[in-house]
Amino acid sequence: MLHLGLHSASLAGEAGIGPLVLLIEPDPVLGLDLADALASAGLHAFGPVPDAASGLTLLAHLAPDYVVLGLPRRDEAGLNLLEALRQRGIPFVAHGTPDGTAELPDDILLHEPVLAQDVVEMLTLPLRLRSRP
Fold first, then answer.
1. pLDDT, tens digit (0-9, with 9 covering 90-100), for 75-105
2. Angle at which helices 116-131 and 28-40 cross, to 10°
3. Phi, psi of 9, deg, nearest 5
4. How many other CB atoms are there within 10 angstroms of residue 42's CB atom?
5. Which residues contact 102 (CB under 8 A, 6 or more apart)?
6. Residue 92 bridge partners (DSSP)
7. What is the pTM of this model?
8. Rounded to an integer, what distance in angstroms lies between the CA atom of residue 129 and that of residue 63?
């Protein structure tokens, strides 16, 4: 359920604040809930930012370890952001309605309604698996 890729060291790791998660969520209530849940899991959330276009702009200035992406509808900015994440090898979890996420494979997608705990589980499971001896 998580798009995995190699990624170089990020600002988060260098600053010692935990993995940096770029949180892109158009619903402000869900965005704050997700940010709190990510922080409770030891992840540093940057955001929520309101849309894919803003997230794409931020990628030029941030090196997130992961991205959480809410896609309420299919649009060019969302498709461009997904392509940029894939090209950079940045793991991401996406959620949205079937209309907004039709181009995404099921293994990286949560269908709405989504719970913050489900998103955190998708991000932290690979971290836990990597930390096992």
1. 788 888 988 998 999 988 888 766 655 566 5
2. 30
3. -55, 140
4. 12
5. 74
6. 3, 67
7. 0.77
8. 22
Which pairs count as long-range contacts for 97-101, CB under 8 Å and 24+ apart, including other chains?
A: 97/71, 97/72, 97/73, 99/73, 99/74, 100/71, 100/72, 100/73, 100/74, 101/71, 101/74
CB count in 10 Å sphere of residue 110: 20
The residue assigned the tokens 């090898």 is 89
Each residue's pLDDT tens digit, 28-38: 999 999 999 99
- Residue indicated by tokens 């930390």: 131
d(CA 95, CA 113): 9
Contact predicate 104/90, CB 8 Å: no
Torsion of CA 88, 92, 97, 99, to 10 degrees: 20
- Of the candidates 15, 127, 7, 12, the residue with the CA atom closest to the CA atom of residue 62: 12
Residue 54, CB-side half-sphere exposure with 13 Å CA sphere = 14
Contact 25, 31 (CB under 8 A): yes
E strands present in the chain:
20-24, 44-49, 66-71, 92-96, 109-111
Strands, E, within 44-123: which ranges? 44-49, 66-71, 92-96, 109-111
